[in-house]
Amino acid sequence: MMSNSVILVAGAGAIGSILGGMLHDAGHDVTLLGRRAHLEAIARGGLRISGLLGDRTVTGMTLADDPARLGRRFGLIVCTVKSYDTESIAARLADRLTDDGAVVSMQNGLGNIESLIESFGRQRVLGARVIFGAEIPSPGSAHVTVFAQPVAIGPAPAIHREDSPALAARARAIAAMIDAAGVPAVGVDDIMPVLWTKVLYNVALNPLGAILQQHYGALAGDPDVKPIMDRAIEEAFAVARALGVALPFSSAAEYLKVFYEQMIPPTSVHRPTMIRDLHVRGRTEIGALNGKIVELADRLGIGAETNRMLTRLIRAAERARRRAMKTQGER
């Protein structure tokens, strides 16, 4: 990956804005594709980045609120849209990637790599695990709230097969570029174990945090909530094991110990973005998280009733919120 790569961040929300802003500030040519209000604020006063990766104002990025307005091709596309938008954005950007370019899924949940491959082809798609938290306090600004571990980028050998070694080398080059821009990142040979480790974390915390509107520490400390989280994780762990994912844990019990003792403490005051997604959009990424666990479990013939319950509760909450939004809009 050349130092002067032309980069598109497809989905300039909080995470995408941070990545794009840091890369542009490091000298790369970055285009942000996102929502109009946020981009208009950036056009007026620059992108104001604050929080755990330092404070800076980034100017000079190219801004677009519609893929149709992108007038060139890109050597790297960083996909940070919500998982339910992956298929549609990929179809619209398929001709915007150079022949030797790469697209990296920096998204929550499972199924995004496969969706991107449908449009871009197996040899040009990488996965990534992002486990830092960020928010947009106001249009034109992005604030890093928590940074748990470096961004991990790599292929999925079970999907990429013989292309994996070449893609792993490309992932290391992209990770080195992002790391040099001030966002800690590493390349890995197999992204699926780290993706699944985050999925195990998300299936417990995201839906319950959204339903109860609580931060992670409160969820872990509640005697009625903790058994539900335990069971959601145990079911997801069983699915990963059945799929042959090389999780770095010998058992669900070992993962749960790490989850409560090492993962929760540094993110204890963090609230899932699913809370805001539910309130602002009436739509969440539940389908790529608990819903995907249920889909895979059904295919494998194993149980996932806790994940099924959480999926149904969030989908009911989505419908209720959309009805409320519609009623408010009619007033």
Describe the structure.
The model has no long low-confidence stretch (mean pLDDT 95). Helix 3 (86-93) runs parallel beside helix 4, helix 9 crosses helix 12 and helix 12 crosses helix 13. The protein contains 13 helices and 12 strands. The protein is globular. The longest helix has 26 residues, at 305-330. The protein has helices at residues 14-25, 36-45, 86-93, 112-120, 157-160, 164-180, 192-212, 216-220, 226-243, 252-263, 273-280, 290-300, 305-330, and strands spanning 6-10, 29-33, 47-51, 56-58, 62-64, 74-79, 97-105, 125-129, 132-135, 141-147, 151-154, 185-187. With 331 residues, it is of the alpha/beta class. The protein folds into 2 domains: 6-190, Rossmann fold; 193-330, N-(1-d-carboxylethyl)-l-norvaline Dehydrogenase, domain 2 (Orthogonal Bundle), CATH 1.10.1040. The strands form 2 sheets. It has an 8-stranded mixed beta sheet with strand order 5-2-1-6-7-8-11-12, with helices on both faces. Strand 9 and strand 10 (141-147) form a beta hairpin.
For the terminal residues, how far apart are their CA atoms?
Answer: 53 Å
Q: Please state the second-level CATH architecture of the largest domain.
A: 3-Layer(aba) Sandwich
Spatial sequence of strands, sheet with the most strands: 5-2-1-6-7-8-11-12
CATH class (first level) name of the largest domain: Alpha Beta
Q: CATH superfamily of the largest domain, called what?
A: NAD(P)-binding Rossmann-like Domain
- The helicity comes to 40-55%
- General form: globular
> Helix/strand/pairing class, anyone?
alpha/beta
Give the quaternary arrangement of the chains. Answer: single chain
Q: Give the count of structural domains.
A: 2
* Range of strand content: 15-25%
Q: Could you name the CATH topology of the largest domain?
A: Rossmann fold
Mean pLDDT: 95
The count of DSSP E runs of length 2 or more, i.e. the number of strands, is 12
* Rg: 19 Å
Determine the number of helices (DSSP H or I, runs of at least 4 residues).
13
